[in-house]
Specification:
The structure is a homodimer.
Chain A lengths: L1 H11 L1 H5 L3 H5 L6 H10 L4 E2 L16 H4 L7 H5 L8 H11 L11 E3 L2 H12 L4 E7 L4 H8 L4 E6 L1 E2 L8 E2 L1 H8 L5 E7 L11 H13 L4 E6 L28 E8 H4 L8 E6 L4 H14 L7 H12 L3 H25 L12 E5 L4 H10 L2 E2 L1 E3 L4 E5 L8 H17 L1
Parallel strand pairs in A: 3-4, 3-7, 7-8, 8-9
Antiparallel strand pairs in A: 2-10, 5-6, 9-10, 11-14, 13-14
Helix pairs in contact in A: 7-14, 8-9, 8-13, 10-11, 15-17
């Protein structure tokens, strides 16, 4: 089974096979109960005794009333019963439609997964082993090390997202750093691009993306480019790229490169607790089903089906006539917080790294970042320390507009206090 | 960090370390954003800018209206925001209370996971590598091979659940088969016990469990015993063990044995689409937090947080005064289906393997099981083929009471038709 899948990749998208791990090569979706249940359903059997889930005497879902009482506007079937492996087909199609404007012409049908972490972890299953050089942004969301390092034992190389200027506010997107990181690839590489960046809150300009693409094309090694687009759509300045950068990679040679896009409802639809992400490949129509099956097989061997209530909720939002308006309202609020925060910081000359997107700003501290974090806790301000950049990450997504000036004032005072020492 | 954890296990539960994989030994939970966010919360910071989730101007969750409109009787915070790694503490405690009657005195706080598959996959992360002999029931739920074989490359050995008699209806629980399988363990073993069994639908008697325990104790190899208790509580005959068999293992020597219980809301609370399972260890109070952290670290590196709506729904059910009654109603319906099915089969002398629990019965076919499945599809009956036993699995959980006699009549006719050939 898996041999046949791998053979299709060898012909249709050679890089996908070159970069694939042993596990990735072994993965295929076994024909089991879900498949036989599907056959009985399609055959229209009046007696369907295939699957180990429960139906009532009326053939409908039979949830416990104490759970049923929490759900409205969704059917019990879509809330309480199993959904298809890899996600409901209607949800996958709806997400495909949702992203179609930002994608090249040919891409796989998005496979649903358990949120962004899971999408990245699936990429690690398929492409990262101890012989893989993994290029990760620095600073980064801490879980990257766990997903790409601790678990599959990839060789981690850092590239610094911002090339630091003497005044950190003049720092720029660090193409040179990415080039240097790419040069570390021995056999095969995985380049993780997190745009908009967490924790930097930076999205590059079109010309910076152009330079990035050139840097990638200059490499001679087989490479997977993983786009972590958790914060896609939350760009607050017109000078940066708006939305996904996937289209930029459409002309990369499939003999050498494979591009995977990981995104989802977690941040983009503000459904943090839902755990609905998507994995989508830039590839031709023959490779697509193979890569989709590898992803679904990875999911089958770790968590199997995905949460039905969350899937139904995301699908309802995607189908809503008012979705754009609903998302726009919240983005508008975040943009106002961004503007208020930036203005307040400028007034106090707070030394921040350039930021234009997502939920964050990095502020350079005059002292140890962890010391600053602890100090700010005593002043009523909770931030995250980013020791590698001697900075604190300030997230404005959880702080109300009216509190932002006061919060920045406390932070600026703290910076001043330690500056003087 | 992980060295300290492993050292505790070496002293407090040596077998846990002896059987642990390289990945299991490496796993620890990194102090990241969730921990720093927790500190800011506990410090009561009026300005909490730690976490990348969204709060409205009133400090509350701010979901999209089209999703919000699906939830009642749960707060937006518990439905839309992130919950603690390893599951909400109140949910974990509620499940601990839920199982306390069936557990020995000392056990770990259950860690929530994404359903039964995920619980088993976590066990594979911790305990299965190419040097591990994994003893699996036959016939079995097909995903076992993917979880314990394809992914971590454990050496799979089968034991036949039922020792077949000339008339399959007289078959018995196959202790000898388990003994033979245990003899295959070279360095270290993982014994997976699926009770009640899927697809056999059999739960052993107390004396059979006693014999099983003896067979385990006779082994001299380090061993993890994984209890897959998906169908726990669905025993339809008083002659079999009722509920979990965990207590039987309380006196196993921690120098040689570790017992892990995997259960969850999927079947036990009829929440198939929820994806809420639990992993619980039989161990002392010093090993418990270490093993819990290993599990949470495994989760963190694959799917991170768990679905919030599902967690809130399960917790609501566990806290409901009417839970026992609600579950009892559904179990009562299943029991009536079981009795009706058994009576109908006895009337037609259908050759079934002994069954007394869960949702299934295995019926011996006179011909190839897959051929019989295909034939039954044309007669309007969907079943699952189990070629290893030359049997079909008939699931009565999805067939209404009034349809069961007719369904059995069709099956019996089909058996007769092929018998005569």
């Amino acid at each position: 089974m898996e041999t046949k899948l791998n053979e299709i990749l060898r012909v249709e998208h050679p890089a996908a096979l070159t970069v694939m791990t042993g596990l990735g090569k072994r993965l295929y979706f076994p024909k089991g109960v879900p498949v036989q249940a599907g056959e009985a359903k399609r055959a229209g059997c009046p007696f369907n005794a295939t699957i180990g889930e429960l139906k009532g005497e009326d053939g409908k879902a039979l949830p416990l009333p104490s759970m049923q009482e929490t759900i409205v506007n969704l059917s019990s079937e879509e809330s309480f019963l199993y959904q298809a492996q890899g996600g409901r087909p209607d949800l996958r199609q709806a997400w495909s439609d949702h992203i179609s404007g930002e994608m090249p012409q040919s891409y796989s049908l998005p496979v649903a997964c358990m949120g962004l972490t899971h999408g990245l972890s699936i990429c690690a299953d398929l492409f990262v082993d101890p012989q893989t050089d993994v290029l990760l942004p620095s600073p980064r969301w801490g879980n990257y090390d766990v997903i790409f390092g601790m678990r599959p034992q990839g060789r981690i190389h850092n590239y610094t997202v911002m090339e630091e200027a003497p005044d950190v506010r003049n720092s720029g997107f660090n193409i040179k750093g990415i080039k240097r990181a790419i040069a570390n690839i021995e056999q095969k590489g995985v380049l993780v691009l997190n745009i908009p960046s967490n924790p930097v809150g930076y999205t590059p300009t079109s010309s910076e993306v152009e330079e990035l693409l050139q840097a990638i094309e200059e490499s001679t090694k087989p490479m997977v480019i993983v786009l972590d687009e958790a914060y896609k759509g939350m760009e607050w300045e017109s000078s940066s790229v708006q939305g996904s950068i996937a289209k930029s990679f459409v002309n990369l040679d499939p003999k050498q490169f494979l591009v995977v896009k990981v995104d989802g409802a977690t941040k983009e639809l503000f459904f943090f607790g839902g755990r609905i992400g998507f994995v989508t490949f830039l590839c031709n129509k023959k490779s697509a089903p193979v890569l989709e099956e590898k992803v679904i097989a990875s999911i089958r061997s770790t968590v199997s089906a995905l949460p039905s209530p969350s899937q139904a909720m995301v699908l309802r939002a995607l189908r809503s006539d008012t979705l754009q308006h609903e998302v726009g309202e919240i983005r508008g609020l975040l943009r106002r917080r961004y503007e208020t925060l930036k203005r307040a910081m400028d007034e106090r000359s707070v030394p921040y790294f350039p930021f234009n997107s997502a939920f964050f700003v990095l502020v350079r501290t005059p002292n140890d970042a962890e010391q600053m974090r602890q100090y700010l806790l005593t002043k009523g301000v909770g931030v995250v320390s980013v020791p590698s950049e001697q900075a604190i990450r300030v997230s404005y997504s959880t702080v109300s507009l009216d509190k932002i000036p006061k919060m920045i004032s406390i932070i600026a005072d703290a910076l001043d206090a330690f500056q003087e020492e």
